[in-house]
Amino acid sequence: MEHRLKSSVDLDWVRQFIATNLPILPVPGIPQIRLHKAGPRSGLRRLAERDPQFGSPYWAHHWGGGLVLARYLLDRPEAIAGRRVLDLGAGSGIVGIAAAKVGAREVYAADVDPYAIAAIGLNAALNEVAIKAVLADLTTDEPPAVDIICVGDLLYEEALAKGVTGFLHRCAAQGIEVLIGDPWRAYLPASQLRLLSEYTVPDFGEGAASSRRSGVFAFESNMSS
Ligand SMILES: C[S@@+](CC[C@H](N)C(=O)[O-])C[C@H]1O[C@@H](n2cnc3c(N)ncnc32)[C@H](O)[C@@H]1O
């Protein structure tokens, strides 16, 4: 897997910015993982001022879906050990980091945001794991050469959820296992999912202090839609 999207972002500068301005914090309920996380004094606006293409800094937070999926993997190393894993819509890289910690053979973390690629590199190093960060929209490609795809909180917009769900169907049809972590957002294709586990975790989208039930699901492409 390789970078498919072009980016003019100065990743060295961004890495330096993140390292300097986003404090390293433990992840709630997952003491094994620490991440660079935006705080009130991080000044993310300075990144936006430098770059008219700067989008929402999803990579600077952990999301409910990624939190539950990371916990699930850490609780069940047997689901991942020795396997090739893709963390799709990786953001900070939290899910890929969990997969690497429990012994995945290879971990890819794909995101369409070049700032996420910078954050994933830093967060992987911080947690002493090897992850190949890929700047690409893999959902428009053929199924990748992995054994399992982990999707943390990527179904947050209708058109995106539709594209991702179609891609996951194609992957599942090729025998790739798919796990989804999601706080029951509106576009979750619930009829095609089997609930494996639930945890109550903070959900970024509803404010830092809020907690809600979030599920880990197996994607069952042969279930009725
Ligand atoms: C809500 S964040 C979730 C991040 C992380 N998985 C978590 O749960 O903490 C969604 C991430 O998906 C990325 N994304 C959006 N569309 C994508 C696509 N088509 N392919 C890969 N990543 C995508 C965004 O840039 C963002 O970093």
What does this entry look like structurally?
Keywords: Methyltransferase, Transferase. GO terms for molecular function: protein-lysine N-methyltransferase activity. This is Methyltransferase. One of its GO terms (biological process) is methylation. The structure is a single chain. This protein is α/β, with parallel strands linked by helices and 225 residues long. It has a single domain, classed as Rossmann fold (3-Layer(aba) Sandwich). 29% of the residues lie in helices and 25% in strands. The protein has helices spanning 11-21, 45-50, 64-75, 94-101, 114-126, 158-173; strands at residues 24-27, 30-36, 84-88, 106-111, 132-135, 148-152, 177-182, 193-202, 211-219. A seven-stranded mixed beta sheet has the order 5-4-3-6-7-9-8, sandwiched between helices. The chain has a two-stranded antiparallel sheet with strand order 1-2. Helix 3 (64-75) runs parallel beside helix 4 (94-101). The longest helix has 16 residues, at 158-173. It is globular. It starts with 10 loop residues before the first helix and ends in a 6-residue tail after the last strand. The relative contact order is 0.17. The site of S-adenosylmethionine has 25 residues, from helix 3, helix 4 and strand 4.
